[in-house]
Amino acid sequence: MSGCDGARVAWAYLSRVAEAPCGPLIGLIDAVGAEAAADMVRRREFPEEFVDVLEATAARADRVRAEADLEHIGHLGGRLVTPDDEEWPEYRFGELALKNQTPQMTHEDEWRELRPVALWVIGHGRLDDLLERSASMVGTRAPSSYGERVADQFAGDLSAQGFTIVSGGAYGIDGAAHRAALAAGGPTLAFVAGGLDRPYPAGHAGLFRRIGEEGAVVSEYPPGTVPGRHRFLNRNRLVGIATRGVLVVEAGFRSGTRNTATWAKHRAIPVCAVPGPITAATSVTCHQLIRDGATLVTRCEEVVEAVGTIGEIAPEIDAPVRATDDLDGPALRVHDALPARSALPASEIAAIAGLPGRAVIGQLALLESKGLVTRDGALWRLTR
Amino acid sequence: MSGCDGARVAWAYLSRVAEAPCGPLIGLIDAVGAEAAADMVRRREFPEEFVDVLEATAARADRVRAEADLEHIGHLGGRLVTPDDEEWPEYRFGELALKNQTPQMTHEDEWRELRPVALWVIGHGRLDDLLERSASMVGTRAPSSYGERVADQFAGDLSAQGFTIVSGGAYGIDGAAHRAALAAGGPTLAFVAGGLDRPYPAGHAGLFRRIGEEGAVVSEYPPGTVPGRHRFLNRNRLVGIATRGVLVVEAGFRSGTRNTATWAKHRAIPVCAVPGPITAATSVTCHQLIRDGATLVTRCEEVVEAVGTIGEIAPEIDAPVRATDDLDGPALRVHDALPARSALPASEIAAIAGLPGRAVIGQLALLESKGLVTRDGALWRLTR
Known about the structure:
2 copies of one chain form a homodimer. Chain A is elongated. Chain A is built from 19 helices and 12 strands. Chain A is 46% helix and 11% strand. Chain A is of the alpha/beta class. Chain A has a domain at 329-382: Winged helix-like DNA-binding domain superfamily/Winged helix DNA-binding domain (Arc Repressor Mutant, subunit A, Orthogonal Bundle). In chain A, helix 11 packs across helix 12, helix 13 (229-241) packs across helix 14 (256-266) and helix 18 packs across helix 19. In chain A, the strands form 2 sheets. A 9-stranded mixed beta sheet of chain A has the order 1-2-6-5-4-3-7-8-9, with helices on both faces. A 3-stranded antiparallel beta sheet of chain A has the order 10-12-11. In chain A, helix 10 (145-160) links the parallel strand 3 and strand 4. At the A-B interface, helix 10, helix 13, helix 15, strand 9 and helix 17 of A face helix 10, helix 13, helix 15, strand 9 and helix 17 of B.
């Protein structure tokens, strides 16, 4: 892939010229194409209906670094993926997908704000393939050992079921999810909040390298961009809308995961949450999300049921079976009427069970055929 | 109150003559009254539409112990409470309440099966008063220390909010709930599965005595009845339908609490469940109930919101407040554009934030008025 054709340079320029998300700019690009849009932004001349783009792009219109950015990402072993590319996940970010699946967003700029202009990527696989069967796993940067264990379990199990584990590359639950996916040999993808040359947190530089080798590290920000709080929120938006579903593992009271879950909800993407002790601060947001309608999940199969394709239903938990399990009311009453050790005549059993004699005889015969009671002359007893 | 008027003797007789629950017998009593119904059962002669009562009562029709039963309960310091008594909780067990509030039960005998014939009671307060503002708390007989702690907390808090704590008097969660209510000085009520002269479990004899002193011990079975498995299930039905709501604290895979919750559901009574670690067997049924529609609760206020009267809404959890909490998008972008230690000119801040210069000046003034940024000549920095 050449990093320097004219359209790609235009996309790279547009990716830097406005702070994401920028609905008006996306609207302009949709209307006139990337190259014409870049030209208008540079010249500060817009058709009347796109005049909002002027304010959104004025501060950086003169920063022409697009070719340098493309060169830079090339040196990092990465690429810029744009809506023109085959691997662009159209089914997640495409106009049709966003328009139809966010019915509560009635103003076009609203659903356009969900979409990144383009994505800076380090990784081998195609983005659309990676995100096709994928789940986002998010949570607190300071999990309990319970949370770490649960993140590890779900990520490993979902990987084994063919899911790409998507997260934000942060410390805590994010890191545990990425690592478990790598350990399971499954692909994993990290959306980050700054340029790909600025791994954040720095302590995860090695982890990002491995994610880039086995999956992808992805940013909507060009190289050199420093992470900032609003960029973390925007990153959360991509984690929330780019996959089939969001699983919140552990999250304390003030948690960015609530933000991620809200984006998913806008997009009608299922949100699952793992419960924990009500005495643990680390599960507060999980419990609030469940109270607000998220699906409580206790095992991988339940996540797959919620986020997978139709027909992936979680199997029932296997129950230990007891001999008396399938007895109906009268049979159970006769069974319970028998004392633990001694034997009784049918008439006495009838009085204790409160059933007519005929019915009791029938039930005793049934219980005998199941090996639950034993006849002893005119008396009946429980089989030891 | 006299224990030996004719109607009361008839109720006592009817309370023993059929194994509860017995919809057809309740139907007969509703139609002809207790005394005439008792007479028909004794003579084994029924109007055609009540012929089902014959089979249900034939085995015990000749057991005429009613006066002895009433004498016996009197010796125990108790009484028989019947639908003729003012204290009968008509709003829970009355024909109108049951008929209107169990719309999915279309056959009359079905909702009649919910109702006890009469109730044997040891306790001072009126039953209707005790059950008016009440909540059932149920759970496993073998709780974790987490479950015991949570039961204690909820029962104590609900008591303080004026709720009668209703449970089944069993070991584990039931006992913890009763004890916490007693410790909080609130009333508590135990529905038991056998005669009131046969405390079960025997280890709770002392607890039942205290419950009888401060609240009530209640059974639909006459004195002398031994507990049996179907009687525990029937007891669960009363715990499930006699109160304003059911709270499941901790319950393992095979748990009678599921049965209690199902009865509540039939009766359109709210079911709440406390989550726990997904790694704990003791929370399996709680999680399944929540997945099936029960309300996840983490504190007393949420239970009150679910089961209390209209308008009892749980207050929001208090959040620690940060200075930047109420900043909107542009203000937050400007704030985040400022580096941790150094100062920048407004033009540079504008480029980093991706906002036009004018807008940045406005936001900086706003942030300065909130004490978040400080001007230093032509430069701006974050306030330490």
